[in-house]
Amino acid sequence: GSLRPVIIKNYTTMKNTTIITLAAMLLGSAGAFADSAVTKPAGFVTVGIAPAPSEGASKLTSFSVALRNSVAEGSQTTSIGATSATKTGAAWAANQWTTEPHLLYLTNAAGAEEAFLITSHTSDTLTLAATFDLTVRYGSGIRDYAIVKAHTFGSLFGTTEVDFKSGNLATADLLYVWNGANWVTYYHSGTNWKRTGSLGNVNGDVVFPDDGLFVLRRGTEALNLVLVGSVPYKPQVTTIPGENLTMMANTYPVGTTVEQLGLQNLPGWQDGSASTGDRFYLWNGDNWLVYYRSGGNWKRTGSLSVVNTEVIPGNALMFVQRESASTDANAANTQSIPYNLNN
C-alpha cells in the first residue's frame, strides 16, 4: 500500500539528538556506543528543531521521546486480566494514577517491558488501555510492573508559555502525531495546547514512549528542546500488528542499529523489496528511506550494501508497513538495549 505519512514529504530535516547526562557513559563519544553504563542513568537530551528559512516559510523536524519519568511504584502483579492488572492489598487511593495520567510498564517472561495507559482503577486493580488480551502475552499471574507518570504536551513543552511559536493553525508551529490512521495536529494558542477535533485545553494529552512527533517550525530561530528523564533499563516492546501501518520510535536516547530494532523477529515477518513485503520507513530530512529484508539481511533504498549495522539515530521515529497478517497479541516487537547496564 501507499505510505500515508507522505503528506509531510516536502518539508525538511530530521535532526539527530544527542544525550547529555550526568552519567554520559551511555556514549563513549557522540554517536558511538558505550562499553558500559550505570543502572538507571538520568539526565536530559537536547533535540534540535530547525528554523524556518524565512518569514512565511516552514521547516519540519521529527523526533520521539525516549526518556521517561521516574518510577512512582514498582512491584509484582498477583493476577492479570484481559485489560487489567491486580496487586492484591495495594490500597491505592481513589484516582491516584488517573488525576494525572500514568503508564503501567509490564515486564514479560523475557525481561522486556511495554507501557499501557492506566484508564481507571480500584484500590488494587488497574484498568489498562490495551488493544489485545493481555493474558495472551503476559499470562494471568505474577509479572513485574512499574508505574510511571506519563509525559504530556504540557509536561514536555510547557503549558501557558512555550518555546514554540504560538498562534493558530495558520500561524503557529504545528506538531503532528500519528493516531494509527491519521495525523492529529497540535499547536499552542498562547494560553494552552490545542488540537484538531477538540475545542478544549489538551495540555494533558499523553505522548507515549513509542510515539513520534513531527514539528512544522514556522519560527525563524532555531529551537533546542531539552527533554528530561530516566534512560530505559529494560528492552522495550512495541506492538506492530500485521496488515497495518504503525508508527515506531527508537525507544532509546542513543543510536541503535537496524538489526537491533528487532523487526525481523516478529512472527510472520515477510521479506521482500522496497515496495513489497514488510518494511519500514525513516525520514532522512528530504525523503523517506525504505528498509526491507532480502536474503536474510537488511537493505535500503539508495544503498547496494547490507545495512544490518547501519545506525538509526536516538529518539528517531519510523513507520512500519506490514503486508503480512498478524494479530495485535502476536505482534510484540522487542528492541534490544543499545548500551550495557551494570548493576
Attribute tags:
globular; 7-stranded antiparallel β-sheet; mainly beta; 2 helices; 343 residues
Could you characterize the architecture of this molecule?
With 343 residues, this protein is mainly β. Helix content is 3%, strand content 37%. It has helices at 134-138, 153-157, and strands at residues 17-21, 42-49, 59-64, 71-76, 79-80, 84-86, 102-107, 113-121, 125-128, 144-149, 151-152, 174-178, 183-188, 193-195, 206-207, 212-217, 223-230, 236-239, 244-249, 256-257, 279-283, 288-294, 297-300, 311-312, 317-322, 332-335. Strands 4-10-7-8-9-6-5 form a 7-stranded antiparallel β-sheet. Strands 3-16-12-13-14 form a 5-stranded antiparallel β-sheet, with no helix packed on it. Strands 19-25-21-22-23 form a 5-stranded antiparallel β-sheet, with no helix packed on it. Strand 5 and strand 6 form a beta hairpin. The longest helix has 5 residues, at 134-138. It is globular, with a radius of gyration of 20 Å. The model is unreliable at 1-39 (pLDDT under 50).
pLDDT averaged over residues: 87
Question: Strands of the biggest beta sheet: in what spatial order?
Answer: 4-10-7-8-9-6-5
Give me the number of helical elements.
2
Structural class: mainly beta
- The helicity comes to under 10%
State the end-to-end CA separation.
Answer: 45 Å
| Unreliable spans | 1-39
Gyration radius, rounded:
20 Å
Choose one word for the global shape: globular
Number of strands: 26
Biggest sheet record: 7 strands, antiparallel
Listing every helix as H and every strand as E from the N terminus to the C terminus, the arrangement reads EEEEEEEEEHEEHEEEEEEEEEEEEEEE
Please report which band the strand proportion falls in: under 5%, 5-15%, 15-25%, 25-35%, 35-45% or over 45%.
35-45%
